[in-house]
Design goal:
The structure is a single chain. It is built from one helix and nine strands, in the order ββββββαβββ. The protein is mainly beta. The chain has one domain: Pnp Oxidase, Chain A (Roll), CATH 2.30.110.
């Protein structure tokens, strides 16, 4: 199966993100495990279902990406936004994140074009 990073689309607040870093586009993980097992002293097993559907999403952009300005504006105004990730490589799998807030990315200047990694907190997260 082929892999083409151009087939991964990231949409933030209705805008298509561009200017991704070289090695990573996006990574997402739920903040807690959905299921845990508890075993009683007598060996009885119980499954606990955690209702937490929050997640942390890391978005890696080149320093000159126009999306940096968008994310900086969302950070400064503490504005909630939604985002989605569509991966056409894997049969159009999708990530949907709602009620998102972005933390300020590190900002490094140097001889070469650097990267900025944005940490986004999603209060609602689902993989479809």
């Amino acid at each position: 199966m082929e892999w083409n990073p151009k087939d991964v689309k990231v949409i933030i607040n209705g805008l298509k993100a561009t200017g991704f870093a070289e090695d990573s586009i996006i990574s997402a993980s739920q903040n807690t495990e959905k299921f845990t097992v508890k075993v009683g002293a007598g060996g009885q097993k119980n499954i606990e279902i955690n209702p937490d559907d929050t997640a942390t999403i890391s978005l890696s952009l080149k320093q000159n990406s126009p999306m940096n300005r968008v994310l900086l504006g969302l950070h400064k105004t503490a504005t909630a936004f939604s985002m989605s990730v569509i991966d056409l490589n894997s049969g159009a799998s999708q990530i949907v994140a709602t009620d998102c807030y972005v933390n300020l990315a590190d900002n490094e200047k140097g001889r070469e074009l650097g990267d900025r990694e944005w940490s986004i907190i999603a209060l609602g997260y689902e993989e479809l």
